[in-house]
Amino acid sequence: MISDITIGQYYSGTSVLHRLDARVKILLTVLFIVIIFLCKNFLSLALMFALTAVSILLSGVPFRMFFKSLKPILPIILFTAVLNIFYIKKGTELLSFWVITITTGGLATAFFMAVRIICLIMCSSLLTYTTTPTDLTDAIERLLSPLKVLHIQVHTLAMMMTLALRFIPTLIEEIERITNAQKARGADFESGRFMQRVKAMIPVLVPLFVSAFRRAYELSFAMSCRCYHGGEGRTRMKQMKLHLSDGVSFLLFALVLAGVIVLNHFFGKLI
Amino acid sequence: MADIILETKNLTYTYAPKTAGEVTAIRDVSVAIERGTLVGIIGHTGSGKSTLIEHFNGLMRGTSGVVLLDGKDIWENKKEIRSVRFRVGVCFQYPEYQLFEETVYKDVAFGPKNMGLSEEEIDRRVREVLSFVGLEERYLELSPFDLSGGEKRRVAIAGIMAMEPQVLVLDEPCAGLDPIGRATVLSLIQNYQKTTGSTVIIVTHSMEDAALIADRILVMNQARLAFYGTVEEVFSHAGELQSMGLDIPQMMRLYLLLREKGLPVSKTFYTLEQAKKAILACFKKGENA
Amino acid sequence: MNDFIRFENVSFAYEIEGEAAKPVLENFSLTVHEGEFLAVLGHNGCGKSTVAKLCNGIEFPQKGRVLVRGLDTASEEHLLAIRQCVGMVFQNPDNQIVATIVEDDVAFGPENLGVEPAEIRKRVDAALRRVGMYDFRRFEPHKLSGGQKQRVAIAGVIAMQPACIVLDEPTAMLDPRGRRDVMDTVKMLNREQGITVVLITHYMDEAAQADRVVVMDHGRILLDDTPRRVFAQTQTLLRAGLDVPQATALAKELRKNGVDVPADVLTVDELADALVRAAQQN
């Protein structure tokens, strides 16, 4: 049923990761990305991989969810891997054929890059799987709030994101409803050339826009009626408070960072 | 044997079968609708009535069971499903939200055009159907977006009628209209059925409307067909309807109250006219005695 | 009874570019009393929605003025106070829910008013309990039925602790069960919480539940009385494009034909009792 769609990819649960402060999770994700780019050899990469694996286990989100998020990226991973295999010529030569030379160094780099991308994807998926879109928007608003000094309307941006999240399911339902109504009048969306298909969308798009504008207009009334007047003087029901676990996870990341630096230093560089 | 136009046999539809989110929207529905009748479909939101009508014109395909139009399975030839939609015209809830053309004329012509009719035939149909729904010549070139709510609704209904379907299905055609709008649309539907003799199916929440215009009533309850029969037959199950949480027509409630209080009203009544006659008859008898 | 909202000789017209302004209200005066349940009845386009929008400064009169507890809605400085005091619920439940989680939406009003977080939490929980939606507080709005969404919208208004709620055709898009739930909620707020209610509707059965009914046509007030006396005016109502309850219509027909029942019955039960009495006298 269309009403079953969930916005974003939140996977509900009560794990430690779910309970972490959304701001902390965003910062840690950024930190993770930075650290993984600092990794220079397999040992430090293995440390990061272990961190990813442990986090996934802790989150309680099933593995198939992560495979699902990897699927669309797979071609990119393969592409970079192949490029690395062909272009990097280091170490022992394994195979030489016409212009193609494959070396151990090339294979190792390809593998290294692939694991790095996989860790990246897993880690950012972990953020969206364990954080509701609402919490994410809230956290972004709060993290960006220092930008107010630069006269950037952080609150307005966050409000727009919230409203978009709120109305995506409504509009998807609407598209389905209008499509059905036009199909009932014999509209054909499935056949014809590209241009014909684009033209066939007009009977859906026009009513959709008309309705979206009407909704926007009514919503603005409704918001004014509830005393909305921008971000000034506004309080929030849900306060974000840092807990012990948030501190501990920062500490853990600091240790991992130190570990990566040490491993990089003592065990040589692959890249 | 009765002349059946539309029939479902053991029709079942399940969303997301064999998953945790499995929901059966309609279960084992078998019903045969006679040609030329006006059928009222009643039932709660979520009872499966909207899902059922989406099966009538092949917008949805049952997970099991069949839909027969004039005795032929509508899914016999998958490629022909579009032609089924011209023969079973479905007008959804709030149909004014499907208007998109620059003029009323063009919008009503959308269906007939998709049927591949000739220009003259389209022109004849559009003019005829618009005058039928009470919109004069001057409306033809207006933008549908400039009309009042009630007028938009009539243009949208006209767009379905212009396909001249054998079966016209309307999902809550009066929803959200004010009393004048409701009365206009109801009498329009009644007239359409009388003048064209086609089969009309109307989904409604109003028991009064159903009692007033329908020949037969179909009751859906928790994805199943609860009753299908004449107005009298269906409302004779007043107790069961009420236990499903459905109302009965107000006038029928009056009838039941009067019987309970011992007033000798002879014949069951559902509509205002019937009630007036029956009660007056009862009082006349009283005077004579 | 104290005056709560006063319309004083209000004129209002919608201005459409390049066209003559379309007058909606002309010299319109109406007083809403504190604590009453007032229904404003009229067909589409009679100006009743404009009345709603004038109540809390969404629209402003071109002539005359609208006072809420003595404050002029046209004065910028009182606008927030007026909107906090007069809450508004609209027809389409989808287009007034702002947040992606029910409880966050209910919190929206108090947050805008700058209420303390702990106090907001209290108000949100209380408001959701009041409308019977507490168990749904963590739901996403699009997973609720129309009636449930409308009750969330009402909770969002009462969390601002208004003295009055104006509802503009709140049940027009709902099924019978949703309509009943919303009407029960509205009545409860009026009877138990003492909140002044202005219900704008074209459903007679809803207007019949009010203390007082105002019937509008062409921007003017045709009738202003108790439901019973208003519905007895069958002719005026029909001319204004409205229905009368079936029981009232039948009583009228029966009276014409010499059956002795009162003209102002409202419900089927009343009519049944009256008929039994008439039969006994017969």
Structural features, described:
By secondary structure, chain A is mainly alpha-helical. Chain A has 2 domains: 2-131 and 241-266, no CATH class; 144-225, no CATH class. Chain A is built from 11 helices and 2 strands, in the order αααααββαααααα. Chain A has a two-stranded antiparallel sheet with strand order 1-2. In chain A, a hairpin with a 2-residue loop joins strand 1 (93-97) and strand 2. In chain A, helix 2 runs antiparallel to helix 6 (104-130), helix 5 (74-87) runs antiparallel to helix 6 and helix 7 (133-144) runs antiparallel to helix 8. The radius of gyration of chain A is 24 Å and the shape is flat. The model of chain A is unreliable at 1-7 (pLDDT under 50). Chain B has 289 residues and is of the alpha/beta class. Chain B has 2 domains: 4-98 and 164-246, P-loop containing nucleotide triphosphate hydrolases (Rossmann fold, 3-Layer(aba) Sandwich); 249-289, no CATH class. In chain B, a hairpin with a 7-residue loop joins strand 1 (4-15) and strand 2. In chain B, helix 3 packs across helix 4, helix 3 (104-114) runs parallel beside helix 5 and helix 4 packs across helix 5. The longest helix of chain B is centred in the middle third of the chain and has 18 residues, at 179-196. The model of chain B has no long low-confidence stretch (mean pLDDT 92). Chain C is of the alpha/beta class and 282 residues long. Chain C has a single domain (3-226), classed as P-loop containing nucleotide triphosphate hydrolases (Rossmann fold, 3-Layer(aba) Sandwich). Helices cover 39% and strands 23% of the residues of chain C. Chain C contains 11 helices and 10 strands. Chain C has helices spanning 48-55, 79-85, 102-112, 117-130, 146-158, 176-193, 204-207, 227-231, 234-239, 246-256, 268-281, and strands spanning 3-14, 22-33, 37-41, 63-68, 71-72, 86-89, 164-168, 196-201, 212-217, 220-225. The relative contact order of chain C is 0.14.
Which descriptors apply to this entry?
heterotrimer, A: 271 residues, mainly alpha, 2 domains, two-stranded antiparallel sheet, disordered N terminus, C: 282 residues, alpha/beta, Rossmann fold, six-stranded mixed sheet, four-stranded antiparallel sheet, 11 helices, 39% helix
